[in-house]
Write a structure and sequence with these properties.
The complex is a heterodimer of chains A (about 260) and B (about 190).
Chain A: H1 6-20, H2 31-38, H3 54-76, E1 86-90, E2 93-97, E3 115-116, H4 119-125, E4 141-145, E5 150-158, E6 161-169, E7 177-181, E8 186-191, E9 194-199, E10 204-208, E11 214-221, E12 225-230, E13 234-240, H5 244-252
Parallel strand pairs in A: 2-7
Antiparallel strand pairs in A: 1-2, 3-4, 4-5, 5-6, 6-13, 7-10, 8-9, 9-12, 10-11, 12-13
Chain B: H1 7-15, H2 19-42, H3 46-59, H4 70-88, H5 111-130, H6 134-145, H7 150-157, H8 161-179
Helix pairs in contact in B: 1-2, 2-3, 2-4, 3-4, 4-7, 5-8, 6-7, 6-8, 7-8
The chains are: A alpha+beta (about 260), B mainly alpha (about 190).
Chain lengths: ~260, ~190
């Protein structure tokens, strides 16, 4: 694009910004219904009678039921029965129940293309507003990865030990992280009036790139517990040796 | 790492009839496919379009070439299903896309005044995108709202690469006058 005139870059940048603030309704959870159709247990949904205004509400309720069922199964299914028993996703994180890791994830796991920098510089490099929890103050370390797709705030000296926040654009339509829940439980919580997930115990965490490949070098076991939540613009996972109350207080103070 | 299956492995296993592996792809690509269907004109029927696309994709997995990326391959089916839908309801695929409400306390790099001006400029730009001819709007949706490359856009819309380039250029040219002061006279009305 050597002879690309300057105005073109300008229009393109504005279009990207428009794209990131477009209103797109939430997607339904389709894993169960697609599976049923492939097993020949459910008829095609298209061309069926229109349900009119009720439809949206019915679909929303179905999605909730599916989610709750998965959560229950996630906890109750014995380990190792199937390679991938259940999958669900939340705020840019895909969560699966699975057997233990094939190898021990590295202790020096890294995200692709990570660079340490000041908070101010990070704010200029990413397309989403970076949330900083007032309860923790200024982060000791700020790392931007994968060309501005993820920002990590690292606090080494807190009353809870090492605390880490990974933030990514809330509009991301790809799952950024994948978690394998080996044990522990997952509960739904409220963070600043929105939904969040509280996951107790360590999980294996893997980074997924834009084209859907998992980055083996990013695999690691999380420490302590994890809280995941999101606003319209940014999704956050908070990780550390935190109690649920402490994690929620930190999340509530994020601005 | 065996427990983290990537797209290629999930596809290979799904091809052999492994519905668990296919569920990973469905979970991983639902949001992306839904966003594409919605923005390409399926509107509130986006969930139905995506469901149909996932069922068809599974049945056509034998046509998936090793080394190909699953995302654009799936989105081509989604785009095709969306086209069938908009054709069957005999309306212009145009869907008035809207901007979400800005979040208070968001990234206001240059203060509230700049933020308001930027929001107005974007609203005007989006209004202009909504009035573009179908194929120009589609190419902009793919390139800038779904953030696909030119090659991926060509694959998704089933157009030659040259058409992607020329239609993008034409569309950007039409929008130019809205953003660059003094450029109004150069907007092509062709």
């Amino acid at each position: 694009m050597g002879d690309r005139p300057g105005w073109q870059g300008l229009v393109e940048a504005e279009l990207l910004a428009v794209g990131r603030s477009l209103e797109v309704p939430p997607a339904g959870d389709l894993t169960a219904v697609v599976r049923q159709r492939l097993e020949g247990r459910a008829p095609s949904r298209r061309h069926g009678p229109a349900l009119g205004p009720l439809r949206g509400r019915l679909r929303w309720r179905a999605a909730l039921v599916v989610l709750a069922a998965l959560l229950v199964v996630l906890i109750a299914t014995p380990q190792g029965r199937a390679a991938i028993a259940h999958v669900f996703r939340f705020a840019g994180v895909e969560i699966r129940q699975g057997p233990g890791p094939a190898r021990h994830p590295g202790s020096r796991a890294s995200l692709p293309g990570q660079h340490g920098m000041s908070l101010e510089r990070a704010r200029r490099q990413v397309s989403f507003p970076i949330l900083v929890p007032a309860a923790l103050g200024r982060p000791g370390e700020v790392v931007v990865s994968d060309r501005g797709r993820v920002v990590s705030l690292i606090y080494r000296r807190t009353p809870y030990g090492l605390v880490r926040l990974d933030e990514f654009a809330g509009h991301l339509d790809q799952f950024v992280f994948e978690k394998f829940v080996h044990s522990g439980d997952v509960t739904e919580v409220r963070v600043n009036g929105t939904r969040g997930l509280w996951i107790k115990g360590p999980q294996e965490l893997v980074y997924i790139t834009r084209d859907g490949t998992t980055v083996a070098a990013s695999a690691r076991l999380t420490t302590g517990n994890t809280l995941i939540w999101g606003t319209r613009q940014v999704a956050v996972r908070l990780e550390g040796n935190l109690t649920r109350t402490a994690a929620l207080a930190i999340a509530d103070s994020a601005r | 790492m065996r427990s983290a299956i990537d797209d290629a492995e999930a596809v290979a296993r799904a091809r052999g009839g492994d519905l668990d592996a296919y569920a990973v792809l469905v979970a991983r690509y639902t949001l992306r496919a839904h966003r594409a269907a919605f923005l390409l004109g399926a509107g509130e029927e986006a969930d139905d379009v995506v469901q149909e696309a996932f069922v068809k994709a599974f049945r056509h997995l034998s046509r998936f070439r090793v080394g190909e990326s699953f995302g654009p391959w799936l989105l081509r089916i989604v785009a095709n299903e969306t086209r069938n839908l908009t054709r069957s309801r005999r309306r212009r695929a145009a869907l008035a896309l809207r901007l979400g409400a800005a979040e208070p306390g968001g990234a206001a790099a240059g203060g509230p005044v700049d933020e308001v001006l930027a929001a107005e400029r974007r609203a005007r730009l989006l209004a202009a995108v909504n009035t573009l001819p179908d194929n120009e709007r589609q190419v902009l949706v793919c390139r800038y709202f779904l953030e696909l490359s030119e090659a991926e856009t060509a694959q998704v819309l089933a157009w030659p690469l040259g058409s992607v380039k020329s239609r993008t250029w034409r569309a950007l040219n039409r929008l130019r006058g809205l953003l660059v002061p003094g450029e109004q006279s150069r907007i092509s009305h062709g």
